[in-house]
Structure formats: structure tokens, C-alpha cells
Write a structure and sequence with these properties.
By secondary structure, the chain is α/β, with parallel strands linked by helices. Helix content is 36%, strand content 21%. The chain contains 16 helices and 23 strands. The protein has a 7-stranded mixed sheet, with helices on both faces.
Length: 520
Amino acid sequence: MTIRLTSFLCGAWHAGAGPERPLTDATTEEVLATCRTGGVDLGAAFAHARGVGGPALRALSFAERGERLQALATAIHAHRDELLDLSTANAGTTRGDSKFDVDGGTATLAAYAELGRGLGDRRFLSDGPGVALGRTARFWGQHIQVPRLGVAVHVNAFNFPAWNMLEKAACALLAGMPVLEKPGTATALVAWRIAQIVVDSGVLPDGAFQFLAGGAGDLLDHLGPQDALAFTGSSATAAQLRAHPAVIRHNVRTNVEADSLNAAVLGPDVAEDSETFKLFVQNVVLDLRQKTGQKCTAVRRVLVPAARAGAAREALLARLGEIVTGDPRRRETTMGPLASAQQLRDVRTGIARLATAARVLAGGPEPIAERGWFVAPTLLEASDPEAEPVHRDEVFGPVATLIPYSGAAAEAAALVARGEGSLVGSLYTNDPAFAEAAVLALAPWHGRLWVGSDRMAEQSLPPGMVLPAMVHGGPGRAGGGEELGGERGLALYLQRVAVQGFKGLVAPAFGARAAETAGA
């Protein structure tokens, strides 16, 4: 039976109208669900969020909002097995990759629930210490942060239908802003089921959570000066969102996480029999296999010293040969299909484009199955480390290019910089001097840098893992945005205000101690 996805707006579920868009089983191409959004009143949804959801959330303290996030995490986790099965069907993920998405989302909710408990019974935040502004301390200044009065509109990507939605919602709801979630349509079945669980739980105030299934329609037309827009997806779509008249006219606060040609850099000191080298190979292959390479943090460029290129090539090809591509429902499968027919077309075209500047070592654009959106894990090698397609074209699938370099930190950083901004870069070295030089040279082009070495190899989480305590985002091509990072993740949804006046009035009301118990 085909499921029809519905939208939850103004406190009710709406089937929508107009042409239906199919959602398929990524392995069998069977139509699982359809969605359509014509006929829904998004203007009313914005009004409902601003007039009902926002005031109700702002009436709660950070601790009370945190309690609700924890309750949501618990409610969603209770349906974990069902959500994993839906992910395997609609997104083509193995069970392990499904857990990566669903558990990542609930873990982030729980992390922000804990942050809310730590922030306590406050409804605004003091931002740093107060400061004397005149000849004496009588004239005083204090920065505070208060919830914005609009709607947090979240336009999410197809690759992480659970995690992408829940991480954004966690930050906005804790900050005191109602959310309107619009998932990537191709894999929206998981997000829709989570939306049902959120609504059925009754945890959130009326108007605090709304959900739009299908196309965006006139969603952005209703944005105003107090709203926030957070987007994850392609840089081309991000440019369209930023150019929308309402975004420009109202200077809508916008956060973008976009394309990212992430790089892994192997240091010249790393011996082939070291734990660091093994970690390097393990993580590069993991990024190719996990989620079928459909991760914004996956490595796309693999920089190795020319003296180590042969060993790296041999080790990577050996590990790639162990990947079992097939039906993700089978226990022996370690990599499933891509998420959609469009993804398959894009990835095959992208591999062919890279192959004009790099030699295919494994895989390639050729079809490997009669049905389903399957592509082989693909490794290429560039003869020219500056070849333009290698640093220009992100292929959003199980694809990476090996790039030999001299071993100098400055050259590695210059090559990485040709990608014009990344979410995460990984560096493998046991040499403190090389690590320091590389980190400082790479830092301006990254939102996060991950340094692997012998001493942390057994305990580290891989560089592709996004953690609630650390910022996620990057400059330039990566979108210029920033999400998560603990309390930093609330910044998009809070307004920083400088309050100036008599110290005897300002400091008691808005200083750090006052904020612990003050209401808004």
C-alpha cells in the first residue's frame, strides 16, 4: 500500500493537492509513498507559529524546554526499529547507516536537553561580563541574548532525514523559537514518521512544531525580519534561497551548510606500519562506504605524500575491495544504493567528469545492477595535483580522488584551499611541527579540523562524525554557516542586545547572576 505523506500545519494534518511526487524504495525502485503540498496555507502556518507557538515556548525556561527535548528523544527512540526499517527502504541505508542517522538525531536532542538543564530557569542569556562605559562604573553596559519573535524555517537535505531535522529543531526549540520543518522530499518518509511521533507525543506547545511534506511552494514568501532560515543542501539551491526577495527585503537571518570538497591529508612522517596510517585508510574507506558516500562531511580529496602514494593506493584499494554492495536488508551488505534515481544520474555524471582529469583506480560510472540506484565505490588518482575538476566538482556519492603532493604542509594547505571552503578537514601525523603548521594554514578554510595520530587512534571518533559539542559548518563553498557547537548553536535564534544604563538598574536585572533566575 502506497503511503500519502501529509503536512502538519496550524495544529492539523493536511493531505495537500496537485501533482503527486513519488518516493521510492532505493533498492527495488518500488513506489513507497507520495506527497504533494498544493493548497496548504503557509501564511496561516507562519501566523500560527508566531502568535501561538512562539509565546508558549518563550514562557518556558531553558530548563523546561530542555525537559521537552529529552521527552522527544525518548518518544522517538521508542520507535527506533520502525524508523530504521523505513530508512533502509526509502534511503537505501544499511542498518548501521540507518542507526547513524536516527540515533544521531535523538542523541543530539538529548545533548541539547542536557544543555537546557545547565542553563537553568533563565529565559534570556547574559553575554559576557558587564563593562563600565563612562568616567565611573555608574554608566554601565551589558550584552544579553533573547529569543527572536519569528519562525525558524528549516529546509533540510535528503541524506540525513532524521538527524538533519532533529539537530536544527533541538537548537531552535531550546532557544525559544517555533520551527517549521521541510525535509528533502526524496527520503521524506523517515522525517514524516518522526513528525507524527513528535505531534502524537504532545510534548511541545501548540504551534511550536510544524512540518511541510513535499515542495516548498511559497514558503519563503512569508519570511519576515524576526524569522530565521537554516538550509542544508547544494550551493546552487543555497544561492537561490539567499536571493529570494523576502530574504533580501527583510534581511532574514540565514544559515547555510552547502557543498564541501573535504580533504584528508597524510603527513610525510607517517610510516606505513603505524597506527596513524591504518587509521587514515580506515577513515577514508569509511567515508566512501558509509551512507554510500552521501555525507556532507565525507572526504572527497585524499592528499598523500608522493613517496607514500603507492602504499596508500594499495592499502585503499585492498579495503575498498572488501565492501559488499547490494540490498541493504541483507546482513552481508556493507554499502547500499544511492538515495534516488536523480542521485544515481548525478553521481555517474560526476564520476565521468572527474575521469577527464584523473585515472579511475576502482569503480567507475558504469551501472552495476539492473534495478535500484547502485554505483560502485570509486577511487581515482590525479596525475596533476592542481587539476581543476578535482578541486571544483563534488560528487555526492562513494567517490574520492587520490592526490599526491610533495609532503610540505604549505603545499597541502594550498591544494586544499583550491576547494574554496570545507566543513571538515582531517590531518594524519605524529609530528607536532607539521601538525601545527598544517592546522594554522588549513584553519581559515574550514569549520572543523580533525587531527589523527598514534596516541588517539584507538579512542577517536571518525572525522565525518558531527558532534553536538563542536561547531558544524564552514566558510566559502561550504556555505559560510555554523550549526551546533553547544550553546553556540542557539545563536541563530537569539538576538544579541546591548543594554546601557545606570549600573544599579542594568547589572542586577541583566547581569550573569540575575539571568540565572530572571524571566523574560
